[in-house]
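Colleagues,

For the teaching module next term, I've prepared a clean inverse folding example: a structure given as tokens, and then the sequence designed for it. I'd like students to try predicting residues themselves before seeing the answer, so please don't circulate the second half yet.
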């Protein structure tokens, strides 16, 4: 979240609190923030590799 914090603060303003919650992509949950009380610029995520399904198609050499 560190890379997004300054832009979010610019658009949200100084009076709006910004919390770093979970990290999601359009396909799955990528990681969880286990301590939402951390400052957003120091938020760390636990990666969950089993939450996603990866399909790797075979390449035929025909």
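(Answer key — instructors only)
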């Amino acid at each position: 979240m560190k890379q997004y914090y300054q832009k979010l603060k610019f658009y949200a303003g100084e009076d709006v609190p910004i919390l770093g919650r979970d990290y999601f992509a359009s396909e799955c949950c990528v990681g969880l923030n286990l301590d939402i009380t951390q400052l957003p610029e120091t938020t760390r995520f636990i990666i969950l590799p089993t939450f996603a399904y990866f399909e790797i198609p075979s390449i035929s050499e025909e």
